[in-house]
Design brief:
Keywords: Ribonucleoprotein, Ribosomal protein. The chain has 137 residues and is mainly alpha-helical. The protein folds into two domains: 95 residues, c-terminal domain of poly(a) binding protein (Orthogonal Bundle), CATH 1.10.1900; 38 residues, no CATH class. Helices cover 61% and strands 3% of the residues. It contains four helices and two strands. Strand 1 and strand 2 form a beta hairpin. The chain starts with a helix and ends in a 17-residue tail after the last strand.
């Protein structure tokens, strides 16, 4: 019987993986639909989602894609809300000091990421892009 249980578990895992991939394919479709809707109103997907997050609107991608398809007036209202948030975010950020702060200095002996001004964890293998740094599980 242990062999049968193992086969059942493998089938369960296989079905779970198929569901994960299916959801990923749907997610790509939702993102492209939202992107098309945002471009229609002279915005981009990333700016729209970022502005929605700053305003505190908590709608998932599936709901947003349904709004694009079936409720264009509601989606237009969300675009307007995102534009207002984006403009206020831009005004606030233009008054602040340059990234990250004018008085910010890295700790002594720390490496900085070549493209970004952020401290990279130390690793014996160099930059930790795509890998976990040493000492972390």
């Amino acid at each position: 019987m242990p062999g049968l249980r193992r086969l059942q578990r493998m089938k369960e895992l296989n079905l779970a993986l198929k569901e994960k991939y299916r959801h990923r394919e749907h997610k790509d479709g939702w993102i492209s639909t939202i992107g098309i809707g945002a471009k229609y109103y002279n915005s981009t997907y990333s700016r729209f989602i970022s502005a929605l997050r700053t305003t505190g609107v908590r709608l998932d991608r599936r709901t947003l894609s349904l709004l694009v398809s079936h409720e264009p007036a509601s989606f237009r209202a969300l675009i307007g809300l995102a534009e207002v948030a984006q403009q206020s975010k831009f005004k606030e950020s233009s008054l602040e000091a340059p990234f990250p702060r004018a008085d910010w200095h890295p700790p002594p002996g720390a490496k900085l990421h070549p493209k970004e001004r952020r401290v990279v964890p130390r690793s014996s293998k160099g930059w930790t892009r795509g890998r976990k740094p040493d000492g972390l599980l």
